[in-house]
Design goal:
Length: 267
Amino acid sequence: MSFFHILLVAIIQGITEFLPVSSSGHLILLPNLTALEDQGQAVDVAVHLGTLGAVVVFFWSDVRIALFGVPRLLRGQIDTEGSRLAFLLIMATIPVVILGFVLSVTGLSEAMRSITVIGWTMLGFGILLWVVDQKGSSEKVATDWNLRDAVIMGLWQAVALIPGTSRSGITITAARALGYERSDAARVSMLMSIPTILASVALLSVKVIGDANMQVVRDGAIAAICSFVAALLALGLMMRLLRSVSFTPYVIYRIALGCGLLFIAYS
C-alpha cells in the first residue's frame, strides 16, 4: 500500500469511528467508489488499535476507574464505582460479540457490505438519530447508567454490525431515547466502544497474524499512529461541539450521503 492510501484509510477511520456517521460504512465505500484496492484486514486491525488508543487517552479518568474495579469484579464484588462500571461495560458488549460471531460464521457480514445497504442504513438511522435527539429528554447523566440501560444500549449496539448504521450513532440514539443528556450519551457510547473495539481487534488479529511481515508491520504502525491522531482530534471536536449544538449536523451529512449512495445504487 502507498503512504497516501494508508493515510487516507487511517484518517477516515479515525474521524468516523466516534462521530455518528459509520466508520465501517466509509471504509467499505472507499474501494467501491474509488480505484483504490481494499486496505486488507491487517490495516483494519491497526486503525482500530489507533482509535482504541485515542478513546482510552481521551476518557482516561473513566477508564482508570473501570480498570481498578476489575479485580473486585473478578472476585464477584460489584460494590465500587469501578467494579460497577466494568461490569456494565461487559454486559453492554455481550450482545455485539454474540451477533458478530454468528454473522462471521454464517457469512452474512460479507453479504451486507454493499452500497445499497449502506445507503439505506445511513439514511434510516440518521433520521432516527434526529427524531430521538430532538424529542428525547435530558434528565439522566453518565453516573445514572445502570444494568437495564447497559443491556438496552448493548442490544442497540449489536445492530451496528449492519454496515452504515454507526456504532456510536446507534448507541447515542439509544442513550438519548433513554433520557441521557447529549454529552453524557456520547460519553457512555465512547466508553462502550472500548471493549467492543478490543473484541473486534482480537477477532481480526487471529485472521491476519499468520501473514504478518515487516511490510505489514510498517504499514500497520503508520496507520495506527495516524488513526490515533485523527480520532483524538475528532473526539475533542465532537465533545466540545455538543456543549452548544445538537447532532443535527451529523444527521444532515448522513442523509445527504445516504441519498447519494441510493441514487448510485439504483441508477
